[in-house]
Design brief:
By secondary structure, the protein is of the alpha/beta class. Helix content is 51%, strand content 11%.
């Protein structure tokens, strides 16, 4: 009877372990790693080690088994200490949400979420599900975002009467969508308020086509769809240095695959170990020094320049689309708060490349923030969220006022 209970308990324990390993292996496939993943894989390594030891049958079998157990527990405690006691080498996602998320596998994870929740693939258009809502939430703010028929955070303007408007389409990532502020305080919405009271912008209206997590290639695909409907007079494409990293991770136009699917670049082969073990992460961070895209320090300059060149090439596609569809193109480059407080070669290289083409109007927001003493290294805390890094309503207000002024300089109405 006792033997039967022991066997049943062992089978149950084995089934639980196998189930946990399968769950965490599946999460790892989708780029998600929790602290329980670290614990599970430490247990797996111990099981493998004990199995190998039992197979070899060394002379001091019991002592070697004990040594393997002590070593595994010590490594696990080391991992947990780095994570929770010293809090070293944490990614932004780990600091904010407590888990590791692979940027290279976001397409797989998003496809799984969209297929499970909405019964569809994410596709070539980086937008939200139409007519849905979500809470834009961080420790510093909580705002409700509502999405229209395009899956964008703006009023639903897909009606026949709106064709009489002279449309200005603003397109970009989370800074354009307005993360960090209420929907009515994004810089495109505030820009719309400004031009509504200025006779220089008679009958003009702004459409906010910004979407958090987007980049220039996703924005180009979306714009082609919007242009066919709105026939805008002006398109303002906002870019920042996150686009550089987005393209390193996602690739350029090669991400768009057949049947309206996408596929990002492959992560380095060592990412699963980097994500699961803080000891391995510490070793790699102190040797090859990868950045958050997992690009080693020695290769960063070369790969970053390739990404900047890719951004510039995509801008040329925007320009060609403008020539075909008869809209004026404006490119704006916005800084994050660290780029205001200290020198940043990535921002300057991107600014130099984007400003090298005089066939479109270029707005360097960092230069204007600083030269006009609006947002500086001394007062930026008033305009950016310290933890999240996005602008607050005051920051977006200054942004909108600058863009309105620059549109007048570029003679909005030909």
């Amino acid at each position: 009877m006792v033997t039967t209970i022991k066997k049943a308990s062992l089978k149950l324990l084995t089934a639980i372990i196998v189930l946990l390993l399968l769950v965490h292996a599946t999460m790892l496939y989708y780029g998600l790693v929790f602290v329980t993943t670290t614990i599970c894989f430490s247990g797996l390594l111990l099981i493998i080690a004990l199995a190998v030891i039992s197979f070899i049958k060394p002379a001091n079998l019991a002592n070697i088994r004990l040594l393997a157990i002590i070593l595994t527990i010590s490594l696990l405690l080391g991992d947990l200490s780095i994570r929770y006691v010293f809090k070293l080498h944490l990614t932004r996602k780990e600091r904010l949400n407590g888990y590791y998320l692979s940027e290279y596998k976001r397409d797989k994870l998003q496809a799984l979420i969209d297929n499970t929740k909405y019964g569809q693939q994410p596709g070539w258009y980086h937008v939200s599900k139409p007519y849905t809502t979500k809470i834009s939430s961080q420790p510093e703010f909580h705002y409700l975002f509502k999405y229209n028929s395009w899956g964008l955070t703006d009023a639903d303007t897909s009606s026949v009467s709106d064709h009489s408007k002279n449309w200005i389409i603003t397109i970009g990532d989370s800074f354009t969508e307005g993360v960090g502020a209420p929907m009515d305080s994004s810089w495109p919405r505030l820009l719309n308020n400004i031009i509504g009271h200025d006779s220089a912008f008679l009958n003009h209206q702004v459409l906010n086509a910004g979407k958090a997590g987007s980049d220039v290639y996703f924005e180009y695909m979306l714009l082609k769809k919007l242009v066919a409907y709105y026939h805008p007079k002006r398109v303002i494409l906002d870019i920042n240095t996150t686009d550089i990293d987005d393209i390193i991770i996602r690739g350029g136009s090669n991400r768009f695959k057949a049947c309206n699917t996408i596929q990002y670049n492959k992560a380095p082969w060592w990412e699963p170990a980097y994500a699961s073990s803080y000891i391995i992460r510490s070793i790699l961070n102190n040797t090859i020094e990868p950045d958050w895209t997992l690009t080693p320090k020695m290769k960063r300059g070369e790969i970053e320049q390739q990404s900047i060149d890719s951004i510039f090439q995509c801008v040329q596609d925007f320009k060609k689309l403008g020539e075909q569809e008869h809209f004026k193109l404006t490119i704006s480059l916005n800084p994050n708060m660290t780029e205001l407080t200290e020198p940043n070669s990535s921002y300057e290289k991107l600014a130099a490349e984007l400003s090298s083409d005089s066939s479109y109007y270029f707005i360097n927001l960092k230069h204007l923030f600083l030269s006009q003493n609006l947002i500086t290294q001394h007062n930026y805390q008033n305009y950016y969220w310290a933890q999240d890094g996005h602008h607050n309503s005051l920051g977006y207000k200054i942004w909108a006022e600058i863009v309105a002024s620059q549109l007048k300089n570029d003679k909005l109405i030909p």
